[in-house]
Amino acid sequence: MDFARAENTSRRYLDLILEANKRTNLTRITSREEAEILHLEDSWVGLPEINRAPAGRYGDLGSGGGFPGVPIALATGRETVLVDSVKKKMAIVDSALDELGIGEQVSTYRGRIEELALSQPQSFSVLTARALARLGALLELASPLLVKGGVLVCYKAQLSEEELKEARCVESMLGMRLISIREVMLSDGETKRTIVAFEKVGKSLVKLPRRIGAAQRNPLKPQK
Ligand SMILES: C[S@@+](CC[C@H](N)C(=O)[O-])C[C@H]1O[C@@H](n2cnc3c(N)ncnc32)[C@H](O)[C@@H]1O
Fold first, then answer.
1. Is the CB of 14 within 6 Å of ligand 1?
2. Architecture of domain 3-188
């Protein structure tokens, strides 16, 4: 799909989500103008890093209303899985995908990321995560899902030195390696994004996934 078509279909998707949002809470953003920037433009900010990943399946972790997953799926044409444990959200996303006729390319997984890692290990070439967890937890959740050479692209609103340091302390233990950090200002002139990309370079030294919720609630500490 060319980018103009991807943009057009993404806008139709956004309309369906904003309409559904009047009945079910999918996103806190209700204005169309704001959503254009914070959902569509923001989703595409990670494209340069995503396009550098090897060919293959793409997954959006903690996808919620389908962002950045759906605009990225449309822009890249990759087979896509949107992962979220809240079944009600995924049911709405599924019906929007069906309405747009893109349900074959883009599917949903209604469950925990940790469960997906058990049933479909090492099956994704690229993953994204926006507003899901701290970087260290994202590395832990993504590592068992990625093929070697696969890339995790994290969308961060605020990235502190401390959060980056925590992630860097556990990256090699999880078989991951930082490859890039890029700061972007969105067109509203006030929303800053930091795109942080990690590559899967080897096996995790820790058995993954740990029990449900552990990555987010009980972060790994570097091994002595
Ligand atoms: C704050 S929302 C962000 C949604 C979307 N990525 C965005 O930026 O608009 C975080 C989502 O992650 C989901 N989530 C959190 N931890 C999860 C896990 N371990 N497995 C699956 N979904 C998870 C939540 O249900 C929620 O919908």
1. no
2. 3-Layer(aba) Sandwich (3.40)
